[in-house]
Fold these 4 entries.
Entry 1:
Amino acid sequence: MSVIPILMYHSLSEQAAPGFRKFTLKPEIFAAHLAFLQAQGYTTLTVARLAEIRLMHQEHLLPRKPVVLTFDDAFEDFYLSAWPLLQEYNATASLFVATGYLDGVSQWLEALHEGRRAIIRRAQLREIAEAGIDCGSHTHTHVHMDTVDEKKGRQELVISKALLEQILGRPVTTFAYPYGHHDRRARQWVVEAGFSAACAVKNALSHTEDDLHALARITITDQTDVATLAEFLSGQRVNLAAPGEALLTKGWRQFRRVCKKFIPAYA
């Protein structure tokens, strides 16, 4: 079994509202992350490439020290800040797009006072995809996939996948659950929609026996300096991804489902 750390970034920015600051990283810190990974001999993969290797049962094609960089939400700062740095360090990444907000702003973040953060544009998306960035789905309207009904959940997947494929002119095979929220129903919808891999969160180290449709990722926050990143990669702060769900995860899902009955916009 090979360990394959999958890191989850969101926004590269100097500014953020207090409620969203945790999910922003200064570009210079991301540059330091890339310099560290390069110096330590890590090779970056996309989620699409990882899935391809695993589905072919050709784990020998994995680099000696693999790492997967993922960015959720597709903020425009990926194009403006992350992508130039990835090019500088000869690295790659997967970007997950909530297609309903392309060319617009992050309306789903209004409650965190970040509803005006710019989202990547279609032309920018085509440009980075042509350069090798794996552009995957993050639903159409950034919904909680474990609390929506079946019709809505399937619709979110079908619309986002079709729209991305129309924009990019190529198959879209990867997906990331917004907020990491998923259950057995959502996982099945993702499989049936034709995605070969899907990212959850779990804050654990992924590996070659990890569920391809609920891959473990490690959340990178504004507090993740190079020393913390090194501890993540070495397993000092996180464990290997275990099969199944933690009891706390199940409890949190049930709590949100109950809340949704009384506050429809909650989850």
Entry 2:
Amino acid sequence: MTHSSKTKYRHESNTKVTLKTVPKVRLYVERREEQEHWFVNIGHVTERGRWRTEPHAHPGYGQIIFVRSGNGVMNLEGSSVPFEAPCVLLLPTECVHGLDYENDVDRWVVTIEVSYLTQIYARLHEFIQLWSLPRVIAMPSPSGTATEFFSLITQLAQELESKAFGHVVGAEALLTQLFLMLVRQTRLDQPEDGGASRNETCLAERYRELIEQHYWQNLQLQDYASMMGVSVVQLRAACAAATRQSPTKMIHARIITEAKRNLIFGEQPIEQIAFGLGFSDAAYFTRFFRREVGEAPSQFRLTAREQPQRAK
């Protein structure tokens, strides 16, 4: 089925109603000279004492935060997630997160530009799986994993800083090794058919990008397929192989993610949230949300806000 025939979004407007609930943070690396192209940046943060950021998102960037020592709590899409060193916090593009570090946390922040992430996804199907969700990845010290990971990060920082001949190729190789270490350290669901082809992987990722741009507009699958120059059958096959989800389910998942963010972090009434997400009225939105989540938007908002915002 198509999402439009059942959920009844509004059709008449192509102008998105912006619900301003989560700050979109421009990263410090953007203050570099505009002519200096970069695809990855390394930052080492060693402030002493408690350090906290309110929930925010990074449009256009993914982040890997290697917590070498210390601990804290991450506000992840409204839920409190504790973490303790050594570990990695993996934050995909647009992931809403806040960080509350305890005293004396030593952390390295690897910021990766989203267009480069898209390129590297095509190298290994598991890279897409890795970045499909925010994660806290433990790095057990006895195994030496944390030491090896730290060594890769410092090598990457040195390669970027050196500007030596071939430093871009060297940095790409080291970053790929970082990703591979994280994949090996993470329990990922393995596809039964041995994985998607490179073309299917690229097609599914392009479709995900288009969803990000248009999920609130109630486009038909044929509209997406036409923009990509493929048939609906090809689109379904690529999504099934690369993500094990249908194209429609991927759209629904993105809408639900945005709905949850607005319900948790915003103060707008449910009617306004429904309209901003492209629904014709709150009743249709409520039925859609209940079917996908298992409870009404009002109950979800109440339950989410009753949760403690940091671990005790």
Entry 3:
Amino acid sequence: MNNYQWYPGHMAKALKTMREDIKPVDVLIELCDARAPESTRNPNITDLSRGKIHILVLNKKDMADETGTSRWLAYYREQGVTAVAVDAKSKEDIKRVNSFIEKKISDKFSGADSRLAEAVKKAGGNLKKRTVRIMVTGIPNVGKSTFINSFAGKAGAKTGNRRGVTRGRQWIRLRSGRDLLDTPGVLYVKPLSQEAGMRIAFIGSLNDNNLNTEELALDLIKWMLLHYPGRIADRYGVDEGDVSDALKVMEDIGEKRGALKKGGITDYERTAMLILDDFRNLRLGPVTLEMPEDTEGFINEKA
């Protein structure tokens, strides 16, 4: 049985580094995955962002249910969180985020009580003469590098559809004259609930090498059968049945796709990776893995 957790010591070190990095930052852009917005947020960010402009970006909106994303945006509005949903590959979405940020900067730093406003005043009252520092953060595999490349208008950061592509901090100068800080993905320093950990594992933010991918794919089949009946049947041409039939569904998928060992025995490892790859590349359709009411206690506070 999978234990959907992480306890790597370097994550605590990364968080300590982030505390230092964020001190000179004026704007914090926090990326999460629109399919599981709350489970893919780092709860430490809220405390770290106090006094900063903090914008939550629900990325990969094209991979999530529109209805689910609308519910999340409404929820965050009720919570007083500034949130916007985007597809980082959409120029229109990135343009909208950029305009949104510029307005937030202008609104916040027009007041005399603002630290940046004082710096602007010393620069002769010209906001453009005072470099505004923007920081982008998020856990691995929420599309941070793709977002940064689109936002910066150039390939300033490496991209990849796997966790941990960004290896170190890097400053990127934007055409607007702003400075953008890219950071490696920072995970939680507290244990996750199994539900949140499973959602994060589904989308690839946990290292597959540390998981039993066969069990993970079986959990995904069960979840899809329960929440999106018909999707697996449409994709693979198999009979779904109910959740109790998940193992047979997995075996039928293996047979349909030729993922078999000698003697016609199901190759569970190959079948599992096929299913996970299909899910992570939208071949099973857009999904929302959680709703606001599902996420209470998504971090195990007792641990």
Entry 4:
Amino acid sequence: MGTDLHAPLGQNRPAARRRARRFSPVILIAGVVVVAVIGLSVFAMRGDDALKQVATNVPPATSPDSQKAPSGANRNATAQQPSGMPRSNPNSGANIERTLTDDGSVVTKYTPRARGDGGPVLIDAQRIGQDPRVAAQPVDALLQDTPQGRLPIVGPDGTRPMEQYARPWSGARGTRIAIVVGGLGLSQTGTQRAIQQLPPSVTLAFASTGNSLQRWMQDARRAGHEILVQVPFEPFDYPANDPGPGTLLVKTPAKQNLDRLHVAMGEITNYTGIMNYLGARYLSDANALEPVLRDLQKRGLLFFDDGSSAQSKTATIAKAIELPHAFGDVTLDAEVQKEAILKKLDELERIAGRKGTAVGVASAFDESIDAIRQWSEEASRRGIEIVGVAALASESVEP
């Protein structure tokens, strides 16, 4: 078997061992010397610039201005560059201007490039909203303990619930549509179906008189929905048309109406604002409406007017007190039939095409849910973005 340590592994042929013993160490040393000499010669041919480039690890300048500078000036600029100085990144979006001074050194100036229409989209940091992993949990700093329950307030750092609980959107300059589906919490099967089957971009409004609202809120927030609280307001034909217990009435003192509002608000957390349920008479009375809207503004909420009352004073008051507000443009399911609702959604899209934005309002009927889900999938392929209603709320501009 032998003990030749120089034999290749797996090959035990005598001829191979004899050839290995005849290999001279002198030849090996001579070969190494020749290779080293050739390598040093080639490296030396690269010149002083290459050696300095390796020493400083700075790539050669490639901008037009730098190419005009003599190589000696470039070497001076490289040698004088302080260690740790930030070096330009060709993808950083900066303009780089190099000027050759009288003493032969190079001065480099960095300025930001102008942002064109096709540049990166600027996203309002206030629209980022809550981390979806904890979206079902209220933020304690945005809540106030009261006899009516835990009510939303502006945080110590100025964060408003409207911003904290808003659904994030892209910030793109395109057609945006918000769809608000109300009446959730009144029917268990209808509420569950709306949360599970409607796209997450659809805003859900929970009736303050509903059942298990906090549990439904958590399900909706985990599914990605922005939510509102739907509060009953007095209609013109009250009491023949009664919105339910806790309705805010025109002739009721302001303090009592605020107490009713706060009871409704305390039923749930993690919402961006309040939406009216009926209320044509109340919304048309400025004296009754103003204390309510001022309370919402103080608490950092928005008010969504479903747009059903032509006499509503919401816009005038909200603009005066800088309350974030939005209005419904189209009632989608006045006729509860899928094809009719799809036609209303197409009408909503035409309005958004003219104005840039639009808001549709619906109730949690099976036909409405089916139509909105189908239309939303088609609209996204046409470049329309469905956003939460907070993304379209205005603080100073009437609709």
